[in-house]
Design goal:
alpha+beta; two-stranded antiparallel sheet; 46% helix
Length: 261
């Protein structure tokens, strides 16, 4: 069995080992140690953790490979003179907010979808009761609304229909500003003006394009993450009968390493 501990706030820390399989109790002890040490360092510069805003997740896997919660607790002393304070444990299915994005350990985007849907309906209502001139509406959409949604969407695995559902309430208001029918085909608004569309970019297309761009930049990066992604890509290519063996090219790609085979 494998195990992992995550520490979730705007700062995320992980306690565990990829060499030996630690017990869950060992990992929670290690997490308590690094959290206390981080707080001491933070306190030395005049700050301390806000314990109510912090949480942790402790999970393990069953023999079938399913992630499940392992209930535990730990505490630290925010200051040398204060009593110990306990951290809140987040269930594996509950999303936590990290830098404006709601993520669950099992990567289920349900909570993020619900929050974005609520936000989309609120913005649509705001556009309806506070109409702006067409140029101002487009500026607000391009500079404020669209970036706010795309920021969260790029980190989630959502299908086309789910992303379109986020954008549709806002598109309806934009079409009304253009004196166009809000019941036109869902593909028409994203077409360029010269082809009879409204020139409103599809969030689904933009999201996938940004995800591909991120993967490309990560794949080309001279980091452990980039090397891992490249090795995975080569393995996938070999499974389909394409590409060269990783061992045949590793001496070229890993500069400074001595050929040993």
């Amino acid at each position: 069995m494998s195990n992992r501990v995550g520490f979730a706030d705007n700062l995320s820390q992980t306690s565990g080992s990829n060499v030996t399989i630690n017990s869950l109790d060992t990992n929670i002890t290690k997490l308590q140690h690094i959290t206390q040490l981080a707080n001491i360092n933070h306190h030395a510069y005049g700050g301390s953790f806000s314990i109510p805003k912090c949480s942790f997740c402790l999970v393990t896997t069953t023999k079938l490979g399913k992630l499940i919660d392992y209930h535990a607790t730990f505490s630290i002393r925010p200051t040398p003179a204060s009593p110990p304070e306990h951290f809140i444990q987040k269930p594996i299915g509950e999303a936590h907010q990290t830098l404006g994005i709601h993520i669950t350990p099992n990567l289920n985007p349900k909570r993020q979808f619900e929050l974005l849907r609520e936000k989309s309906l609120q913005k649509s209502l705001l556009m309806c009761i506070n109409p702006l001139p067409l140029d101002a509406t487009y500026t607000a959409y391009q500079q404020h609304l669209q970036p706010a949604f795309l920021y969260a969407l790029i980190a989630q695995h959502l299908p086309n229909w789910a992303i379109n559902k986020q954008q549709s309430p806002i598109i309806i208001q934009l079409l009304l500003c253009l004196n166009l029918s809000s019941t036109m085909s869902c593909c028409t608004p994203s077409l360029p003006l010269r082809f009879g569309g409204a020139g409103i970019p599809s969030w689904a297309v933009l999201t996938y394009a940004r995800q591909v761009k991120f993967l490309q930049s990560a794949l080309d990066a001279q980091t452990f993450y980039g090397h891992t992604m490249h090795a995975s890509l080569l393995t996938l290519q070999l499974e389909y009968g394409h590409g060269n063996s990783l061992l045949a090219t590793m001496d070229v790609r890993m500069e400074g390493m001595t050929l040993t085979w």
